[in-house]
Amino acid sequence: MKKTFGFLFATALVTVASYNANAQASTDEIPADMNALMQKYTCIACHRPNQRLVGPAYKDVAKKNYTNEKIVELIYNPVPSNWPGYPPMAPMKQVPKEDALKLATWINSLDGTPGGGAKKPAAKKPATKKS
Length: 131
Ligand code: HEC
Prior knowledge:
The chain has helices at residues 2-16, 32-40, 58-62, 68-76, 97-109. The longest helix has 15 residues, at 2-16. The protein has one domain: Orthogonal Bundle (Cytochrome Bc1 Complex, Chain D, domain 2), CATH 1.10.760. Helices cover 39% and strands 0% of the residues. Helix 4 packs across helix 5. Bound molecules: heme C. Heme C (HEC) binds at residues 17, 41-43, 45-47, 54-56, 61, 64, 71, 74-75, 78-80, 82-83, 86-89, 92, 95, 103, 107. Residues 17, 41-43, 45-47, 54-56, 61, 64, 71, 74-75, 78-80, 82-83, 86-89, 92, 95, 103, 107 line the site of heme C (HEC). Heme c binds at residues 43, 47, 89.
């Protein structure tokens, strides 16, 4: 039931955004609380933990070793040149900082661990400051 809703929701959003994405990508590996945020802020339409959709797989974002704070910044001000071959992500400034940080912490926890290794602490390497 919940899954069906998620699928329909994602499909609708992807259709609205008129991207030809594979909306059938599994949402199974998303923890319930993160799934709720992903639905609420529509990230689910374009992102999956382990799979490229419209946007990059979060595990590939995790591999970039951003700090959680840097990811929050990128949610508010995406840098499309970080992801050649993808359409640009719209700035998601409607996400409250607190929720953005929760998503960022989870995204970082996906680093190289299949199935979403939530146990692993987020990578804390200093972010490459470009600006
Ligand atoms: C309409 C599709 C879409 C939605 C909705 C969307 N994204 Fe993205 N996202 C993308 C695309 C495409 C990229 C790669 C291009 C870019 O960064 O602009 C991306 C990139 C990212 C990155 C990597 C940034 C970087 O520079 O490395 C993060 C983190 C991210 N998204 C998180 C989120 C979160 C969290 C949400 C929900 C609050 C969200 N996205 C909603 C499409 C989307």
